[in-house]
């Protein structure tokens, strides 16, 4: 399989305050793991800048203008108590958007079977008119609308396995029957959305998990709710909001997933994409705040994208006990 990786140094220039979980070290940890020889065949490309017209298919004009106006010339600006912009944040957010739309181009034009966008800030909490939860623009939703506009994709699905519910994607898709949102997430937990009764126009599928749930409950939620609904929807493109904060090491949630669970979910979503849309799948990074858990989970996720069921590394862990010290 041909997997394309989008990155950009701007992700390292989106600086947050000391102690903030969504920090530069997340990308450093990912870069370190993807420098491993296991990924020597991974095709790498720098993310372009996202375009205003693509952002405006998912966000209100006032939202885009507020983000531009809040971008500081020095220091930091808080959009809310959790969401901050530094001097490099606007470019980083625009490059994250550009990575997602370029990923759509790559899979529709046959340059790659699938794509992983290792960019920050994350996006799935950004609503039509509001930035929140570390997120400025909603890359997954923007990419979905871009696929419809550019490639006449009739039905686009976003599947989200972050520990937090993607309220922003749900908000943007709420009334659009041809946009699918499926999410497993811990509940109750920030941002307080994601109940099973939140169904939009029959296009929203929430499968909340309880604190302490692990791989067994996660796989059951995927198998009983998300994957069957995805098969019925029959998407022309699968987008993954790939948050790795459901990992058992993560400080921001209480789910107990391991790397193998993320690999399993990746392979299941690849199978669905193969059945319905020629394998077209674009994965965008969302959460994941323990550096070791994040690096190991990204490693297994990208490995699954590259190799499918063949050649998965079973005897060697990516996790490095000294990872944080090295960063």
Explain what the structure shows:
The chain is of the alpha/beta class. The protein is built from 10 helices and 10 strands. It has helices at 24-34, 52-55, 61-70, 89-108, 139-151, 167-173, 215-233, 259-277, 291-307, 323-326, and strands at residues 3-7, 43-46, 76-78, 84-86, 114-117, 156-160, 179-186, 204-209, 237-242, 281-285. The strands form 2 sheets. Strands 2-1-5-10-9-6-7-8 form an 8-stranded parallel beta sheet, sandwiched between helices. A two-stranded antiparallel ribbon has the order 3-4. Strand 6 (156-160), helix 6 and strand 7 (179-186) form a beta-alpha-beta unit. Helix 7 (215-233) runs parallel beside helix 8 (259-277). The two termini are 31 Å apart. 55% of the residues are buried.
What are the salient characteristics of this protein?
327 residues, alpha/beta, two-stranded antiparallel sheet, 10 helices, 10 strands, 15% strand, globular
Could you give a quick summary of the protein structure above?
The protein has 327 residues and is α/β, with parallel strands linked by helices. It has helices at residues 24-34, 52-55, 61-70, 89-108, 139-151, 167-173, 215-233, 259-277, 291-307, 323-326, and strands at 3-7, 43-46, 76-78, 84-86, 114-117, 156-160, 179-186, 204-209, 237-242, 281-285.
How far is it from the N-terminal to the C-terminal residue, by CA?
31 Å
Instruction: Output the structural class.
Output: alpha/beta
Topology, number of strands = 10
As a percent range, the share of strand residues is 5-15%
Spell out the helices and strands N to C.
EHEHHEEHEHEHEEHEHEHH
Radius of gyration over C-alpha positions, nearest whole angstrom: 18 Å
Number of helices: 10
Report helical residue fraction.
Answer: 25-40%
Biggest sheet record: 8 strands, parallel
Widest sheet: strand ordering: 2-1-5-10-9-6-7-8
Shape assignment: globular
Mean pLDDT across every amino acid position:
95
């Amino acid at each position: 399989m041909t997997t394309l990786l989008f990155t950009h140094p701007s992700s390292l220039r989106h600086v947050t305050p000391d102690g903030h979980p969504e920090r530069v070290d997340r990308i450093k940890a990912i870069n370190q793991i993807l420098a491993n020889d296991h990924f020597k065949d991974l095709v790498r490309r720098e993310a372009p800048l996202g375009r205003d017209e693509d952002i405006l298919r998912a966000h209100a004009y006032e939202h885009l203008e507020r983000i531009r106006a809040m971008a500081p010339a020095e220091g930091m600006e808080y959009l809310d108590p959790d969401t901050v912009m530094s001097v490099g944040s606007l470019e980083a957010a625009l490059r994250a958007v550009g990575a997602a739309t370029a990923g759509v181009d790559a899979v529709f034009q046959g340059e790659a079977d699938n794509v992983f966008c290792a960019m920050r800030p994350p996006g799935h909490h950004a609503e039509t008119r509001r930035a929140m939860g570390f997120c400025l623009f909603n890359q997954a939703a923007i990419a979905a609308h871009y696929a419809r506009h550019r490639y006449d994709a009739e039905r686009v699905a976003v599947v989200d396995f972050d520990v937090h519910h993607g309220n922003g994607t749900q908000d943007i898709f709420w009334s659009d029957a041809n946009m699918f949102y499926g999410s497993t997430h811990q509940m109750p937990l920030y941002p307080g959305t994601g109940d099973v009764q939140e169904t939009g126009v029959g296009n929203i599928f929430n499968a909340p998990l309880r604190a302490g749930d692990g791989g067994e409950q996660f796989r059951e939620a995927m198998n009983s709710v998300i994957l069957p609904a995805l098969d019925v929807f029959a998407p022309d493109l699968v987008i993954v909001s790939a948050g790795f904060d459901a990992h058992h090491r993560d400080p921001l949630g209480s789910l107990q997933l391991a790397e193998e669970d993320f690999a399993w979910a990746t392979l299941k979503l690849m199978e669905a994409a193969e059945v319905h849309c020629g394998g077209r799948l674009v994965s965008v990074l969302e959460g994941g705040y323990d550096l070791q858990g994040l690096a190991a989970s990204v490693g297994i996720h990208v490995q699954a994208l590259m190799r499918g069921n063949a050649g998965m590394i079973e005897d060697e862990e990516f996790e490095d006990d000294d990872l944080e010290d090295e960063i």
